[in-house]
Amino acid sequence: MIQALVFDFDGLILDTETAWYRSFSELYEEHGTSLPLDVWGQCVGAGEEIFDPYAELESRIGRAIDREELTERVRQKMTAYLGAHALRPGVRKYLQTAARLGLKIGLASSSRRTWVEGHLRQYGLLDYFQCLLTADQVSKTKPDPELYEKALQCLGVKAEDAVAFEDSPNGVTAAKRAGMFCVLVPNPVTAQLAFRTAYDLKIGSMAEMDLETLLDRLNSPTPVLPSASRQKAAQPGEGK
User: Fold this and answer.
1) pLDDT at 231 over 50
2) pLDDT (tens digit, 9 = 90+) per residue, 160-190?
3) Which residue in 42, 69, 81, 178 has the fewest CB atoms around it within 10 Å?
4) 162 vs 5: CA distance, rounded Å
């Protein structure tokens, strides 16, 4: 029985992923090159150490760049794009419904706490979350499961009693490695990426299916087991 929900942040609650990709794509075009989505996809949902877009740009154009200047330009582009977009559809309603149902609510993000907390406070969502796990609090970010494992510990629930909401391949992999159910809610950028780890359910947005219906599906008598449960059941020679 699902007792807790754990949300990703970037690309899921607020579509920062599309804004970041558009901003860097423009920067690359200004330097006479391009940023393929499959290259950018390496870092979506993961930590900063996975992919350095400035190093990639230098590699493509064959010369050094002024990182400080370009970082500020990207930040300005990002702010302009993000300012034109509110929360992703259905997010606030899901949080309201989860609170009404008495479910525990956590967040597991590969971004830093100041970034996540600042936006949650800006949109009036911070108080919904009982636990915030961010890159500052773990040794490894997604696709490693540490963020989700610590979120489960913080919420005091077992992996099989929790569902993660994710938008990226790295995020889905992290959630399933932690043994959780995972619902994929892709954004315009991540919808184009390859998902090699199986998720339990996919919806276009949280406005597409209400939370109670979604929970009924996951709580049905014969749901798809979380990956860790399937792996455990498959171990030879184990007792019941």
Assistant:
1) no
2) 999 999 999 999 999 999 999 999 999 988 8
3) 69
4) 6
Please answer whether residues 136 and 161 qualify as being in contact, where contact means their C-beta atoms are separated by less than 8 angstroms: no
Distance separating alpha carbons of residues 190 and 200, to the nearest angstrom: 17
Alpha helix segments (H runs only) across 84-137? 91-101, 113-122
What pTM was computed for the model? 0.79
Tokens 């406070």 -> residue? 121
Which residue's structure tokens are 């014969």? 222
Go through 162-194 and write b for each residue having 16 or more CB atoms within 10 A of its CB, e for each that does not: bbbbbbbbbbbbbbbbbbbbbbbbbbebbeebe
Name residue 197's amino acid.
T
Q: Which of the residues are catalytic?
A: 8, 10
